[in-house]
Every structure is written in structure tokens, then in C-alpha cells.
């Protein structure tokens, strides 16, 4: 059995040597980037039409509420059905929903209710796909590369969290808001043949237990240690992080007086921070997920304080750069820690818990930050910074599970 020392010598990029991982990595990246492009484009469409800060922030809520409502159901489906067919259906649905949003904005139907409804429709597909993507990743590479594959999978999601809005900002500045939705629809449609090209392993036999029994078993697995500790730490970290994306349109438009181009530049810097996190990840991994999550929370708190005090675009951009790196690294640390300690038969249901936690934090947090911002943008960022400091303190109450010599590449033996 390989040791952790062997795992530490494996290149971060080694999973890309495997065709199945490459295909689904690209497909997932495109899907996630497109989803976040749409969220940013929808928020700016409302901002351009004199929407309120609350209406702008509700775009994040509409994006993530389906994840909360359907997350556990989706995870149970992914542990019981053919995952390739499930992914194809989700990608096709999201492409159609996004195409409808393009048509609506092209025709000038930019009433916030229309934009929010179509954003919610796209979120339904995302809700089913998210735990399915997480569950298939460890099966795409040899066992000794599973740790790096999951890390890259987590980075894919979090880089998309930053790069999607950044690309949307650039497209808005160059072409117009509606083109964000058309590009997203086309790229989502292209992921369908990519998923079909994946040669899946023979699907496992359907569990003898009923759907309800499978659902309850998944819920039981996440309310006990160690998943409960990891989930708690992740939730505390995500809440202040949501302030960055929820309030950036208001920061750009009201305090800094920026146009669509300036807004896109700020988002591009956030995306650059996430890309920087990819290169930093091997060093963070060598120190452990606990160290990485604490360090990310510290950097996030400093970035939020800087945003609260900034009155110049350059300073605000530096804060977003740091926040992008911190958010990506902290979230990845939580995902990798969770994947290390879950049985493969329960993987989709457990990862659905993280989808639900993320969705709940973003949905509630985004609306909440919009309300807090009514009393002052600086105060909203300052409150978020205080919450990020609480994340650091949570290290003492809910430590992440430590690695053991029995965990090859940081994962338990597949069942």
C-alpha cells in the first residue's frame, strides 16, 4: 500500500493523463463556468435596469435555492441510477433554460421576475448534476491518484466560481449582457456529447433498499462525526465568502462608479485569485486541510476589511484578488477532507450534503448581504470580516479529521 509520502510526490496534474478524467473535467468546468456566468450576467442585467441591491443579490438566491431543495434527493438518485444518463439530462435542461434567458433579454424582457424565474430553472438542472459530478470523479483515475483528482475537482468548481463571473464581466463589456446567456447555452449544449463520450464502468446493481431508505441512510451519515465537523467548518467559512460576490456589483456601481467594463475587471481579478490558488494548492496540501482552511479564513478576513475601506478601484481589485484565492483554497480543503473519509457507496449522498450546505449559505447569505448593505456597504463588508475571523476560531471547536497512514492518497478504501 502506498504511503502518504508517495502521494505527496505525485504531480497535482497527474490525473490529466487519463482520458476519462480529462473529458469530464472539461465538461464540468464548462458547466460550472457557464452557471456562474449566467448568475453574474443576470445580476448585472437587473443592476443595469435600476434594480435594487436586494433584487441583485436575489440572483444568487435563485441560483442556489434548488441546490438546497433537491440536493439530498439528487445525491440519492446519483447513488442509485446510471450517472452518465443523469448528467446528460441535466446538461440538456440547463442549455434549454439558458437559451430561453437569452431570448428573453434579447427581446428586452428584463423584468427582475423574468430573469429570476429563468435563473431558477437553470438551477434545477445544477441541483441534480452537482452531487453526481462529485461522485464520479474518484472513479476516473487509479486509486493512488484519487486524492489529486478530488482536489482538482474541487478547484474546478471554485475556479469556476471566480472565472465564470469574470468572463461574464468581460463579455458584458465587449458585447452586451444577453450574449453571456447565449455563450452559456452553446457551451452547455456542447457538454452533452462530451458526457456521452465517457465510457462508464458497468453501473452497480440497484440497491435492494427503497429510495426513502437510501435517502435516510445518507442523512444519517452526515449528522455524525467526522462529516458533521467538516460541514460545520465549511458552512461557517462560506457565509462571509458569499458577501464578496453578492456585494461586488453594488461596490462597482455605487461606490466606485464603474461601468460594465470596470465591473468585469473586478471580477477578472477575483478569477485571477482563484487561478492563483490552483498553483498554490500543492503547498497547501502538503501542510494539510486544517492548515489550509485556517489560512484561507485569515486571508479572506483581511480581504473583506480592505473592501470595506476601499474607495479606489485598484485597492478594491487587490481585495478581490485575495478573496478569490482564499475562497478557492478554503472550499477545496473542506471538499478534500470530506472525500477522504466517505465510503464510495455513499459518496454522492454525502457530497450532496456539501452541495446543500453551500447552496443554503449562498442563497440565504446573498439575500442577507443585500439587506445588510441597505444600511451601508462598508458595514456589510466589515460584518463579513468578523464572521471570517470566527471561522479561524472554529478550528479549536471543530477540527478537521487528521490524515492517517492507512489512507492512501488521503482516501478510505473503496467498498
UniProtKB/TrEMBL annotation:
In terms of superkingdom, the source organism counts as Bacteria
**How does this protein lie in the membrane?**
Multi-pass membrane protein
* SUPFAM superfamilies (alphabetical): MFS general substrate transporter (SSF103473)
Signal peptide range in chain numbering? none
Q: Where in the cell is it found?
A: Cell membrane
Q: Which residues form the Major facilitator superfamily (MFS) profile domain?
A: 20-403
One MF term in the entry's GO annotations: transmembrane transporter activity
Matches recorded under InterPro entries: MFS_dom, MFS_trans_sf, TM_effector
Q: Where are the transmembrane segments?
A: 55-74, 86-109, 115-136, 148-173, 179-198, 234-252, 258-279, 291-309, 315-338, 350-371, 377-396
Can you cite an annotated GO cellular component?
Answer: plasma membrane
For this UniProt record, the keywords arranged alphabetically read as follows: Cell membrane, Membrane, Transmembrane, Transmembrane helix, Transport
The family database entries (PANTHER family) matched by this protein are listed as: INTEGRAL MEMBRANE EFFLUX PROTEIN-RELATED, STAPHYLOFERRIN A TRANSPORTER
Q: What is this protein called?
A: MFS family permease
Amino acid at each position: 500500500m502506498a504511503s502518504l509520502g508517495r502521494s505527496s510526490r505525485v504531480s497535482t496534474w497527474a490525473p490529466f493523463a487519463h482520458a476519462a478524467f480529462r473529458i469530464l473535467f472539461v465538461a464540468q468546468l464548462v458547466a460550472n463556468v457557464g452557471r456562474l456566468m449566467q448568475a453574474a450576467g443576470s445580476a448585472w442585467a437587473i443592476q443595469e435596469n435600476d434594480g435594487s441591491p436586494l433584487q441583485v443579490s436575489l440572483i444568487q438566491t435563485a441560483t442556489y435555492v434548488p441546490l438546497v431543495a433537491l440536493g439530498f434527493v439528487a445525491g440519492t438518485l446519483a447513488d442509485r441510477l446510471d450517472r452518465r444518463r443523469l448528467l446528460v439530462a441535466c446538461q440538456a435542461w440547463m442549455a434549454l433554460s439558458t437559451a430561453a434567458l437569452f431570448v428573453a433579454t434579447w427581446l428586452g424582457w428584463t423584468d427582475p421576475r423574468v430573469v429570476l424565474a429563468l435563473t431558477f430553472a437553470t438551477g434545477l438542472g445544477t441541483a441534480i448534476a452537482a452531487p453526481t459530478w462529485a461522485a464520479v470523479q474518484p472513479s476516473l483515475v487509479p486509486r493512488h491518484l484519487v486524492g489529486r483528482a478530488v482536489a482538482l475537482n474541487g478547484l474546478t468548481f471554485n475556479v469556476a466560481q471566480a472565472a465564470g463571473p469574470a468572463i461574464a464581466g468581460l463579455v458584458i463589456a465587449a458585447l452586451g449582457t444577453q450574449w453571456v446567456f447565449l455563450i452559456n447555452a452553446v457551451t452547455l449544449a456542447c457538454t452533452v456529447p462530451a458526457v456521452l463520450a465517457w465510457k462508464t464502468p458497468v453501473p452497480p446493481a440497484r440497491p435492494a433498499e427503497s429510495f426513502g431508505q437510501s435517502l435516510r441512510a445518507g442523512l444519517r451519515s452526515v449528522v455524525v462525526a467526522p462529516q458533521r465537523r467538516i460541514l460545520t467548518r465549511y458552512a461557517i467559512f462560506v457565509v462571509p465568502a458569499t458577501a464578496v460576490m453578492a456585494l461586488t456589483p453594488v461596490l462597482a456601481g455605487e461606490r466606485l462608479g464603474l461601468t460594465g467594463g470596470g465591473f468585469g475587471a473586478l471580477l477578472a481579478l477575483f478569477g485571477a485569485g482563484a487561478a492563483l490558488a490552483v498553483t498554490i494548492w500543492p503547498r497547501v496540501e502538503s501542510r494539510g486541510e486544517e492548515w489550509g482552511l485556517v489560512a484561507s479564513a485569515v486571508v479572506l478576513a483581511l480581504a473583506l476589511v480592505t473592501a470595506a475601506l476601499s474607495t479606489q478601484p485598484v485597492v478594491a481589485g487587490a481585495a478581490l484578488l485575495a478573496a478569490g484565492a482564499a475562497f478557492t483554497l478554503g472550499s477545496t480543503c473542506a471538499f478534500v477532507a470530506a472525500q477522504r473519509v466517505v465510503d464510495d457507496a455513499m459518496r454522492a449522498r454525502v457530497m450532496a450534503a456539501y452541495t446543500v450546505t453551500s447552496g443554503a449559505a449562498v442563497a440565504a447569505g446573498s439575500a442577507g448581504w443585500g439587506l445588510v448593505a441597505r444600511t451601508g456597504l462598508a458595514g456589510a463588508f466589515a460584518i463579513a470580516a468578523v464572521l471570517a475571523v470566527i471561522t479561524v476560531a472554529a478550528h479549536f471547536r471543530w477540527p478537521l479529521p487528521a490524515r492517517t497512514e492507512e489512507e492512501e492518497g488521503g482516501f478510505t478504501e473503496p467498498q
